Amino acid sequence: MLLVSHDGERWLPTVLDGLAAQARVGRVVGVDTGSRDASASLVEAALAQGPLRGEVVRAGSATSFPEAVQTGLDRLAATGEPPEWVWVLHDDATPAPGALDALLAAAAEHPEADLLGPKLREWPSLRRLLELGVTISGTGQRETGLERGEYDQGQHDELREVLAVNTAGMLVRRRVLEELGGLDPALPLFGNDLDLGWRAAAAGRTTLVVPQAVVFHAEAAHRGARRTALTGRHTHYQERRAALYTLLVNAPARRLPLMVVRLVLGTLLRMVGLVLVRAVGEALDDLAALLSVISSPGELRAARRARTAARGGRAADEARVSRLRAPFWVPYRHGLDVVSDLASALTDQASDVAERRRAATAAHDPSSMAARRAEPEDDEAPADNGLLVRLLTTPIAVLLVVVVVGLLVAGRTGLGSVSGGVLSPAPESVGAWWSLYAGSWLPLGQGTAVPAPAYVLPLALLGTLLTPAGAVSSLLVLAAPLALWGSWRLLRVVGRLASPRGASRWLLLAGSTTYALVPLTSGAWGEGRLGPVVAAVLLPWTAHACLGFADPDPDRRWRAAWRSGLLLTLVCAFAPVTWFAALLLGVVVLAVSAALAPVAVRERSAWGPPAVALGVVPVLLLPWWLPLLVHGGAAGLLLEAGAPVSAPALAPDGLGALLGRVGEAGALGAPAWLGVVLLVLGLAALLPRRSRVGVLVCWLVAAVAAVTAALVSLVPLTLDGVAVAPGLGALVVLWQGCLVTAAVLGGQGLLEGGSLRTGEAARPRPVVALAAAVAVAALAVPLGGMVWAVLDGQEQLVDEPAGDVPAYMLQSAATGPEHGILLVRGTVQEGLRYTVVRDDGATVGEDEVLALASEDTALTGLVQALVSAPTPAVVAGLADAGVEYLVLPAPVDGRVASGLDATSGLAQASAGDRSTRAWQVERALDPDAVSGSDGWWRPVLLVVQALAVLAVLVLAAPTTREARR
């Protein structure tokens, strides 16, 4: 019997007791590899005093497990009567009584067996199965064929052949072990059992697992309970390196090239998966293990030659090995398991904070929670009903379905390829968005270094899945239902924070429906304003993530910071002004917190998460913000998606903003009385004392949004010589959301102020009358908004916008950036404005770049000369500027048109519309008219952004693996 120990003092007493309980052990040789505790002394004492007989060999601390086994074999051979069988045991593996007898009995019954192993169960639980034989997959994964955490119920108690058995409790013929060359010294601690079993199977030897023999294994090295010089601090690296080495030194030669490619690609894929579950250290260990193995081809060749020599030059028994290896589909099943684990962790994380807060609330008010559990909800169906029956018999569920269908019907105009209002058409190909976002010099207008807006990246990602038109259409059609989902989720959590009972589902339905209608009733949806529409979808989710700042666990607060920062970044990509409101809100909250709890605010885990959430935004938007500031496009930080092409007077006035209307003073919005009722409900929510604190918080956020809007509106913005208003639509949405939340909390406080339930004290009549009036008013807002949105909603979105440029000109412009189209609008008396159309015209994202690009003074001079005194030299200048066609949309100034008709070098062209005039430039076009140099800094910024996004995703993701202890 061979016992190897190293710093195993905590397990050895039990192991030695297990050895003493065996009926026949024979001679015991203990090999201690430089233990710093009393391991060697414990073994010596047991061999000197108990029924066990043998000796202890002390080796150095650098002795590997294969060397320790070989030392023990040499000592057994020195006795002159080497045994036929050797039983190998670890110092953290205790055998059950009769384990050795079961192994020897199986060896006698199956004389063809050369290696036998026991059933391994977890120590100290004693019931969970660890291994009944082991094999290896094509990706190097150690496979046991067991479910995670599977208990031993005798379901695997058949004796069978396996590829390998664990060295903890392995019974092996001494002669066979010597013929195979012993354990491979290149595997100092992990993987030597698999390698030995593979070599034995390749040599035609048989390995059996004997479930009747049970050994309890603590797996101290694998679980990190014991650190040695061989494991170091990177146990995963050692395990992964052993697996890759085992595959490459034992696999058939013809499969090696394909196996190397598979392992490289598989390692990269594993790294991505490990990073996503916040196991960055293990991902780096995987990479280091791969590089360590493939960077030593000489060592691999020598090991393969040694295996061939151990078989006497005979070919390996590949049929036996293949039969005992894991099936090819096992790695794919593990991949699905990882995806399932991640999805489960994300789902659990979403409700974890609310669950723990409900538990904390129950601890403070157990009677209310008990009553909640005792009384069935009014919208709950019997437990034995089917899903469809529950749906049809639950009023809230039925109304939710009706609301969602109504919202989809209200957004029906957004189906298909739409544009109009302030919304430009989507490009034909998603590649246009990707090239727009990646380019440092954009061939738009006369060429510009102004970067693409940040929202182009999420649109490109969505457009890759749905096409560009599908991406824009899905945002418009699904905006209201998604806003309903997010607001319901937020209001439910906020209600539970305010009261143990939580908000009534009727209040949740009214509040979430009102908020979901905000993009429609405000007029933002009808004008195609993607900024407020997307902000309405994302703001509830962002607010829900920010609630994690109040979590008692610091680690969860930091994780909430990364989630909040990521969501806030998405909001700011479409509506950058939101970041300034968040910054002001952070300062206000910090000041209030410092006044109320100065000691708590000093802790880094208290002020750090909100600061991180705010700091994440400029880092993730660096490829847009930095070039925007450098190239004079700072005005883009105060605009929103779609706003640059708007008319100057699109900002809502003060009253319109208070009533939740944007664009043209809310001309496309719902009737003003809906906004008045919601504002009154928000103010009335301050009356109930029970929920006043939460309502005051809502009004604080609303005040910050109003102040930010007031300050931003004072900033003068001029784009292309025209004064424009800042994009305040997202702030109006935030204002409306605060009013909705305050109204729901106020309604909840009114209900909590006195109960209407049977058997409890009745409310005073004035209170009941007030509650009834508030209920009628609260229901009037979502009902009125829904009726207006479905039946009378106005919009400027159209399927195919009418353009001033004929189709054949656009087709020519699509052949190259030098085939530009110059559009000159207006008259000499009222003023003329020009634009240059290239490719298929300005699409979503390009319109903002064109609006922020600085004026080309040279082209402006050419246009002035063209409309006043055109000459052949001016026409040649147009060709050099990359202009092929000149178009004067109706109404046309007759004097300008007659002058162009008489100019040499211009030929009249078909304009389609009789009231529109067009000419073609009959000069050679300059192919480099709008070309520019691509700066090296743009790729660097994109790489930094990609790494930052990956880091934030990892830090925001839930952890699906417990830390090893």
E-strand count:
19
- Which percent band covers the strand fraction? 5-15%
Query: Helix coverage percent of residues?
Result: 40-55%
Instruction: Classify the secondary structure makeup into a structural class.
Output: alpha/beta
User: Biggest sheet, in brief?
Assistant: 10 strands, mixed
Number of domains: 3
EC number: 2.4.1.289
InterPro entries: Glycosyltransf_2
Protein name: N-acetylglucosaminyl-diphospho-decaprenol L-rhamnosyltransferase
GO molecular function: decaprenyl-N-acetyl-alpha-D-glucosaminyl-pyrophosphate:dTDP-alpha-L-rhamnose rhamnosyltransferase activity
Question: Which descriptors would you attach to this protein?
Answer:
transmembrane; Glycosyltransf_2; 3 domains; 965 residues; 10% strand; EC 2.4.1.289; 37 helices; elongated; Spore Coat Polysaccharide Biosynthesis Protein SpsA, Chain A; alpha/beta; glycosyltransferase
Can you offer a commentary on this structure?
This protein is an alpha/beta fold and 965 residues long. The protein folds into 3 domains: 2-232, Spore Coat Polysaccharide Biosynthesis Protein SpsA, Chain A (Alpha-Beta Complex); 450-791, no CATH class; 807-921, no CATH class. The protein is built from 37 helices and 19 strands. Strands 1, 2, 3, 4, 5, 6, 7, 10, 11 and 12 form a 10-stranded mixed sheet that branches. It has a 5-stranded mixed sheet with strand order 16-15-17-19-18, sandwiched between helices. A hairpin with a 6-residue loop joins β6 and β7. α34 (857-868) packs antiparallel against α35 (872-880). It is elongated and about 120 Å long. Mean pLDDT is 83; it is low at 360-387, 645-650, 754-763 and 960-965.
